[in-house]
Hints:
The structure holds two protein chains of two kinds.
Chain A: E1 2-6, H1 10-26, H2 34-42, E2 46-48, E3 53-60, E4 64-66, E5 69-76, E6 80-83, E7 88-100, E8 103-105, E9 108-116, E10 121-127, E11 131-133, E12 138-144, H3 151-154, H4 162-171, E13 176-180
Parallel strand pairs in A: 2-4, 3-5, 3-13, 4-6, 5-7, 6-7, 7-8, 7-9, 8-10, 9-10, 9-11, 10-12
Antiparallel strand pairs in A: 1-13
Chain B: H1 5-11, H2 23-33, E1 39-42, H3 48-54, E2 60-63, H4 66-70, H5 78-85, E3 95-99, H6 109-120, E4 123-134, E5 139-141, E6 146-149, E7 155-158, E8 164-166, H7 172-178, E9 182-189, E10 194-201
Helix pairs in contact in B: 5-6, 6-7
Amino acid sequence: xxxxxxxxxQSEGEQMQERASTMARETPSAPGQTERGASRxxxxxxxxxxSIHIEGDVRGEEDLFIDGHVQGTVTLKSHALTIGxxxxxxxxxxxxxxxxxxxxxxxxYGAERVVITASAQVTGNVMSPRVSLExxxxxxxxIDMDPEALQPVFGTGRGAGSAADTVAAGKAQxxxxxxxxxxx
Amino acid sequence: MxxxxxxxxxxxGVNAGEPLRSPLxxxxxxxxxxxxxxxxxxxxxxxxxxxELLQPRRARxxxxxxxxSLADPTGEAxxxxxxxxxxxxxxxxxxxxxxxxDLWNYLSLPELGALMARVEARCRAGxxxxxxxxxxxxxxxxxxxxxxxxxxxxxxxxASTTALRPAPRYSSEQLSDAMPGFRMEKALLLHSGMQELxxxxxx
Lengths: 184, 203
């Protein structure tokens, strides 16, 4: 179950998250992506749909697919993050693996892998031991392929853990938070 | 008037589909093989093969994608434009290698000087700069070509357009004057008519 909330207003946040979750699952995907978007929302993790706009921190413990707008920080502990082709993200992203098909302005930290597809537009810095970028992608920034450089971010275990939280919390200056938790 | 793709490729100094033999670039690849955590600035667009080449070296690759930025002129002075076009430095680690591909062919001498002055500020003594500069042919593709490095150090060139424009063919003196912070280390005239240049940041 999702939990979204403004700082200091958890119950209101839960309601907001609940609505966002429902809307995300009901949001139609781009042509040709309906099945994939639906399956991700239904079975493969959480979805932030095309009509959703989030300003703040997004944290979670399940895979997340973003096809909407997010400004702030996205931190997933040991899970995969996908920015869909309709996704517009202005945020630093911390996840076990990050896949970008849409637009990202911000830094991408992939504990295991970062994939930038041909349709992606990324402005920022990528840090991951394994980076793949499809020709045709628009990228401007730096790509750091040194696993040791990730240790201050993810800790020695390389899972997107507490150190990532610390870094993310330190960088985020957002007005609200959104948290995802696995369904009970 | 559009020209055939083969003509554009010939004008670019390459044979379409056949990787370009580039000994100086191959030398850089060899040096990178023995380097640990090298820092590389690619002035061209991000390419999968460049990343694959650098990944085992635990490298940091800065991608400027200047051709895309140059296609969108802002009217600012060259120095300010190029400062904004270069990706910001992550930390104090200086550049070890700068890959210019054929970009210099598309810049005026003042622009070239302004760009390389910005680049120089992020170099250390001995930083290597690699570039391809049209030497023999009077024309070249109207916009920068895409270069894909091969594992053996050759370069596969994909002309981005079939339209042609005059090649500036600056002399080595003009280039040196525009980039006083760099010393011409080697220059090879490739069989195709393209000149391969290797410069080093002065000590």
